[in-house]
């Protein structure tokens, strides 16, 4: 996984999003055949999937794109972990390892993806890179927006919500709805985000 300056890779999302906080289409872009809402198990922490939920979702998504090797990951630039000290302090044992070298570096002055109400940093990598944002449970932060290069689906986790939306094919929606590891329901792009 690596930083990407190619913020125009997300232009199609910004063009398809509804006005901020209006409905499901303000979180995940319109234009997909079906939409699913997946409730987070860690409901006391909004805006992220737990590491095991992220791995299960990644596995499901990989089967529904021609390009699992080429994905985009956008992360809200307001997270303290992207800005380093003094915004965040990491406590670890003296003999513990440093964060992995491929973990996203600090935000700095990197270009941002602009969507209604949010500014995001962009990364690129294989679909498995989504898990690199979740090193461990207490500091886990799943990507806020991610999609494959072929745009077969889009995953959106709004920072203030305790669920994730997935837009994609009907086959993907069926897979997510019938997988007991997901607490998933079918939603419409015009549904309110609080239902």
Give a quick rundown of the structure:
With 195 residues, this protein is an alpha+beta fold. Helix content is 14%, strand content 22%.
Q: What is the CA–CA distance across the termini?
A: 34 Å
**What count of domains describes the coordinates?**
1
Let me know the number of strands.
Answer: 9
Q: Indicate the low-confidence ranges by residue numbers.
A: 86-104
Rg for CA atoms:
16 Å
Mean pLDDT comes to 84
Largest sheet: 9 strands, antiparallel
Number of helices: 3
Shape: globular
Briefly note the structural class of the backbone. Answer: alpha+beta
Give the fraction of residues assigned to helices.
10-25%
Order of SSEs, N→C?
EHEHEEEEEEHE
Task: Quote the beta fraction.
Answer: 15-25%
What can you see in these coordinates?
This protein has 195 residues and is α+β, with helices and mostly antiparallel strands. The chain has one domain (2-85, 109-187). Helix content is 14%, strand content 22%. It contains 3 helices and 9 strands, in the order E-H-E-H-E-E-E-E-E-E-H-E. The chain has helices at 11-16, 51-62, 170-178, and strands at 2-3, 34-39, 71-76, 113-115, 118-125, 145-148, 154-156, 163-168, 183-187. Strands 1, 2, 3, 4, 5, 6, 7, 8 and 9 form a 9-stranded antiparallel β-sheet that branches. A hairpin with a 6-residue loop joins strand 7 and strand 8. The longest helix is centred in the first third of the chain and has 12 residues, at 51-62. The radius of gyration is 16 Å and the shape is globular. Residues 86-104 have low confidence and may be disordered.
